[in-house]
Amino acid sequence: FWLKHLVAFAEHAPPCLTSVKPWMPFQTPDASSAGVEVVENHESTMELEKAASHDSWTTSPTFQLGEEDIPVRLKQRTRAELRAIFQNAVSQTMKMNHGIKKVPIDNKVGHAPVGWLGKVALALQRGIRTEGNHPKKVFPASSEFEVPQPEYEFELVYPDLFKRVREACGIWNLRYVAALELPSPCKKPTLSVISSSEASGQSASFFFLSPDQQFLAKSFVVKDTKALKSILSEYVRHIEIEQSSLLPRYLGLYRLRMKTAEESPEVWIGVMPNLFAGIHVISLRYDLKGSTAGRTASSKELQKERPVFKDNDWLHGGQRISMPSEEDRQEFIRLVRIDAEFLSSHQLMDYSLLIGVHQKVKGDNYRIREANNVITLETQDQIYYVGIVDVLTKYDVAKRAETLFSGTLRCRNCSCQPPGKYAKRFADFITENVNIHTGARAGGMWRGRSYG
């Protein structure tokens, strides 16, 4: 059933659909019995998106059977039909268990947004649905939804730069939009929301999660927005060059201006892959800054359903980041140092290495490929999901005062340090906690591999 949808989807693809660099193979009993492998790849999906941006497409593609290119008769389809075909193909592929798995229930977080957050979530999803044609648009007030929508402005900031980030991550726009847009004919948002306190953060931010939990949309304060804009061009080049970088993948920055007197009229939201959207249940979570001063999970934190542990907890628990070889270990350390140097060069500090730990269960299938865009490290007993988070804090006057106060009255190993010292301490701490484990494996985005 799903193969018919994929073939129909492929009917509109250009000849590059059969190019040789594979992105993600799909194979069914029917296809394999005929000696055919249906292959989608990074380059072809980019071409397909260009086609899907028009109402119809008249190019004559070919379908490869063995070494022979067979012409395919076209049936014109609207962009909406292409979108539906794409969503059906992905849905059926997940059901067939061919390499893509849904997030387990124990990893899912969040609840339905209500009130003002419900309006923001709905506005974001409606805007993302149109971002391909209208990166900046004014939506009129509407009463067709369960919660009446006020008039609002929607803007995808620097769309060309964020498109490059998505391409570098292997996340094609059709998948991104399909995961985050408001499905028709929904009359209420389908995103989930969690507060900063639920995520162990210290700001007043809130987080939306896509229905499949693969993408995280975080509200930014003005300082965060300015910081991201100031580094964006160099950040994009860094991600394109260092495709296994541990830095967060910023896939879009949105500005919403709600024309209402309620709450804040302007909201900034950044979208990135969800680090903890793996296919295996995460039992332990660590936030490592490289400091031991006050870096122990509080009793309040330990009472949470999903507590986040800190540096001292990591050390006392005897945890280590395990790499399969000395070559991989040195490459991981190089990435940590080059990422930290990049952040330091832009006067950024207070970031963390976030680690999720899955304790393996005997009998479970650990050969299924991850669908999220993060680095995974696997040993005989555990799987680690790793990435650097919270990278947009500038070392400003307030932080300088905090360094002086903490360093003078408390201790010199306090968390708040100038960017250069912070980067060195962070990288040194991670280096000391990376070892070689025989039989370990590295996957996901490691060495530029992407399965998104």
From TrEMBL:
Keyword terms, alphabetized: ATP-binding, Kinase, Nucleotide-binding, Transferase
CDD domains: PIPKc
Keyword Lipoprotein belongs to the record: no
Annotated GO biological process: phosphatidylinositol phosphate biosynthetic process
GO-annotated molecular function: 1-phosphatidylinositol-4-phosphate 5-kinase activity; ATP binding
Entry coiled-coil feature ranges: none
Alphabetical list of PANTHER family matching this protein: PHOSPHATIDYLINOSITOL 5-PHOSPHATE 4-KINASE, ISOFORM A, PHOSPHATIDYLINOSITOL-4-PHOSPHATE 5-KINASE
Protein name: PIPK domain-containing protein
Lineage: Eukaryota, Sar, Alveolata, Dinophyceae, Noctilucales
